[in-house]
Amino acid sequence: MSCAGCVAAVETALREVPGVTDASVNLAERTAQVSGTLQPAALIAAVREAGYDAAELREAGDEQERDRSERARYRRLFRNALAAGTFAAALMLGEMLGAWPGLDTPSGRVFWIGIGLATLAVLRYAGGHFFSGARRQFRHHNANMDTLIALGTGSAWFYSMLVALFPDSVPSLARHAYFEAAVTIIALINLGSALESRARGKASAAIQRLLGLRPKTARLVEGDQERDVPIETLARGALVRVRPGEKIPVDGTVVGGQSTVNEAMLTGEPLSVVKRQGDPVTGGTLNEAGTFVFQANRVGEETVLAQIIASVRQAQNSKPPLGRLADRVAAVFVPSVLIVAVLTALAWFNFGPEPRLGFMLVTTLTVLIIACP
């Protein structure tokens, strides 16, 4: 997803799945929160049918994999921004210093044709994902910000090559190459996306820390035997032993032994609390001095820690009314720009001065380039 238009498309696709009562997509976090009678496979299929990819996010390993993916994406986008930005800076510096030849001589046109081919290589390397995203959206009869970026930068490159190859086809005052504009747009958008990806990684750190409070195993007591089991296998009523220095795996009630428990993660209180038989204990808190056995009352998504994590995720995915309004406006922004570009072309072709075709190209491409985010 690259824009609020993508958010609207994914939300619409999710809400059309039978059993879904509501769906909210967070563009910054690239997550969706769905309510209703859910079948994850059906939700993922609906998102893919809309032209995007999706995967179910449930466990700590999923969060860690997502975090690694965001870091890799940040590095890739930053490399793209650096490559495009360096090339754009060289073009602009040469033009400011008057080092580049003009388009009014054959040798100058050959030079700019070469620059155009080099620009095409940079666009492919640093902006190829925008063009592939636009192509994917086109196949699904959608248009998003990738569409606008691809049209804007592609139009700038196409127009510049047209000027270099056939300068007489455009008005004399409009004979200018915009190769640096195309790569500058790609550089800035890549840089913005990289910074967004980095911020997204920091935002998910809160959930990572909460997930880190939950131990992976529990000491299950079965008669005279004890063994370590994954906490996912614990059931209500199971007896669990907690030894000194261990984290309590799930919520329950002490049935034997006595200890002090640090509940700072839950209450913020630094002083430990004595736990005796009959006292409740909370998963994720730290057992300190003694050892005790407790009976599991709430496991899995029922625990207090799981509910805290769910609340944090819900808060991250919630949208204020102004945010929902912005999503609705952005959902029609790209189609509106395309309509304006078409109307501009028709107006200049039918009512513009001669050469009509040249002015039509200049004005239409100007609309696309200016509207490019």
Polypeptide structure, described:
The protein has 373 residues and is of the alpha+beta class. The protein has three domains: 4-57, Alpha-Beta Plaits (2-Layer Sandwich), CATH 3.30.70.100; 62-210 and 319-371, no CATH class; 217-298, Calcium-transporting ATPase, cytoplasmic transduction domain A (Distorted Sandwich). The protein is 57% helix and 15% strand. It is built from twelve helices and ten strands. It has helices at residues 4-15, 40-49, 60-96, 106-139, 145-165, 179-203, 205-212, 264-267, 304-317, 321-331, 333-351, 356-371, and strands spanning 20-26, 31-36, 217-222, 225-230, 239-242, 251-262, 273-275, 280-281, 286-287, 291-298. Strands 3, 4, 5, 6, 7, 8, 9 and 10 form an eight-stranded antiparallel beta sheet that branches. α4 (106-139) packs parallel to α6 (179-203), α5 packs antiparallel against α12 and α11 (333-351) packs antiparallel against α12. The longest helix has 37 residues, at 60-96. It is elongated. The protein starts with a helix and ends with a helix. The mean pLDDT is 84.
* Tally of strands: 10
From the spread of the alpha carbons, the general shape counts as: elongated
Total helical segments: 12
> Helix and strand succession?
HEEHHHHHHEEEEHEEEEHHHH
| Helix-strand category | alpha+beta
Parts with pLDDT < 50 across at least 5 consecutive residues: none
**How much helical structure, as a percent, in the residues?**
55-70%
Strand content: 15-25%
